Amino acid sequence: MEGKGLRNKCRSAFIGIGDHKEAVRLLLLLDPDVLHRDERYMLHYSISNGWLDVTKDLVTKYHFNPHTYYYKDESCLYTAAKSNHVDIVEYLIKECGCDPMMTTKVIGLYG
């Protein structure tokens, strides 16, 4: 299985069924450049699921930038904190250098 079908199965493992084992297995089969380009919300899904190991792999091996807003204008750090994933919060601050004072990005809320 290649291409879009494989990416769809991987995405389903992340968001549909939240199957950590299947997500890790499928992630290893995907081209890092294609995944980064076509599945830009994977880091958000990994953080939301509380998968520290997958989050680390997405940052280090797949070059996802945790300093970028990824989903509904929420930073990765905010997503981890609101989901109470303390281990991921610590990783993002201590190892990735994410700013704990960074706010969410809401456009047009006050203007």
Can you walk me through this structure?
InterPro entries: Ankyrin_rpt, Ankyrin_rpt-contain_sf. Pfam families: Ank_2. This protein is mainly α and 111 residues long. The chain has a single domain (3-94), classed as Alpha Horseshoe (Serine Threonine Protein Phosphatase 5, Tetratricopeptide repeat). It is built from seven helices and two strands; from the N terminus they run αααααββαα. The protein has helices spanning 3-16, 20-27, 32-38, 42-49, 52-60, 76-82, 86-94, and strands at residues 69-71, 74-75. A two-stranded antiparallel ribbon has the order 1-2. Strand 1 (69-71) and strand 2 (74-75) form a beta hairpin. Helix 1 runs antiparallel to helix 2 (20-27), helix 4 runs antiparallel to helix 5 (52-60) and helix 6 (76-82) packs antiparallel against helix 7. The radius of gyration is 14 Å and the shape is globular. The model has no long low-confidence stretch (mean pLDDT 86).
Give descriptors for this structure:
Ankyrin_rpt; globular; 5% strand; Serine Threonine Protein Phosphatase 5, Tetratricopeptide repeat; two-stranded antiparallel ribbon; 111 residues; mainly alpha; Ankyrin_rpt-contain_sf
CATH topology: Serine Threonine Protein Phosphatase 5, Tetratricopeptide repeat
> Major sheet: order of its strands?
1-2
Radius of gyration: 14 Å
Q: H/E order of the elements?
A: HHHHHEEHH
Morphology call: globular
Q: Name the helicity range.
A: 55-70%
Estimated structural class:
mainly alpha
**β-strand number:** 2
Determine and state the CATH class: Mainly Alpha
- Provide the β-strand percentage band: under 5%
Question: Biggest sheet: strands, sense, closure?
Answer: 2 strands, antiparallel
**What's the pLDDT, averaged over the residues?**
86
Helices, by number, come to 7
CATH architectural name = Alpha Horseshoe
